[in-house]
Amino acid sequence: MMRLFGGAFAGALALISNPVAAQSYHDIADRYRDAESFNGVMLVGTGGHVEAVEGFGSADTEHGVPMMPETRFETGSVSKWIASIVILKLVDQGKLKLDAPISAYLPEYRPDTGARLTLRHLMSHSSGVPNQLLEARKDPAARGIELDQMEAVRRYASADLAFEPGTAWDYSHSNWVLAKAVVERVTGQSYATLVDRLLVRPLRLKNSGVYRGDSSRVPGMAAGYERLAPQAERKPNPVPDFMAMAGGFYTTAPDLFRIMNAVLDGGFLRPASRAALTTTIMPDQHYALGGRVRVERIAGKDREAAWEDGSNGGFRMLARRVLADGHTVIIFTNAKFDYARLGTLGTELLDRSYASREQARFE
Length: 363
Known about the structure:
The protein has helices spanning about 20-25, 25-35, 80-90, 110-115, 120-125, 130-135, 150-155, 175-185, 190-200, 245, 255-265, 270-275, 340-360; strands at about 40-45, 50-55, 60, 65, 75, 210, 225, 235, 250, 290-300, 300-310, 315-320, 325-335. By secondary structure, the chain is of the alpha+beta class. Strand 12 and strand 13 (about 325-335) form a beta hairpin. Helix 3 (about 80-90) packs across helix 9 and helix 7 (about 150-155) runs antiparallel to helix 8.
């Protein structure tokens, strides 16, 4: 375990901009560790500064690997938010248009729906493309099967539309199978290559990328568990390459913090693309492109925040960033920590980040 919330691990203080502020979070972190067996990583930051980051428990209990701030995790559905950033970079480069018909990029796709669907529909889950992958993924034997992208489109993203695009909302992984086909066709590159070229290298990310199959093959990756006690039981859920946009991104808490800062506060995207990423399209679902933007009560005030959640197998995570001032909390777990409690932990840490900032002003 790395004691950064308590400020006792001097060798890693380069990750912290304010060790005094880090001390103020340790009672919350220790309570969840001791009373609820939290196993994972917590990070709190403001703007571009990490105030506290700590690993709790074990990344790989069978091999005695401790949890560290730089431990890598699957991000689950936060992969969709990452995919939206990559697509918007291609929009910024003039290679894609959010509102062009899909048939302009995939002329062989069924013409009756291809002429009505757009990337904006797919990325906001307002397309009407049914989630055929949901049923297919119920069979464990089928989860790791690889398919050519267009074959995956034919099998899982070519059914009759459930509703007219733009008129309703349905959370469908099939949207991202089709979006990935568009991106790879237009660029002539694999999605993994595009993530590396357009995101990882420009932002100098150290521990992020796209995996395929079982994530345990990625060096430095946490193992995902159904439970850790009384005996560790792993819970893998392989992600085939054709689903990479839906759930195949891995990262660390510091890397994700760097992404959120660059994308939401920096100049990584052009203003129009950044606005598209944070503008809700389906207000009742708080859904924008690849993720949510919510107005929630945070530290006693209503604040608009990027609101990202992800899960796969034993992995659970959340990331919250207040858009106006950059207060951020990122939490990763790898042992099926209760989602409601994870949200409560995130709220407590985010509230404390404001209290700590106010306290610092008067000291």
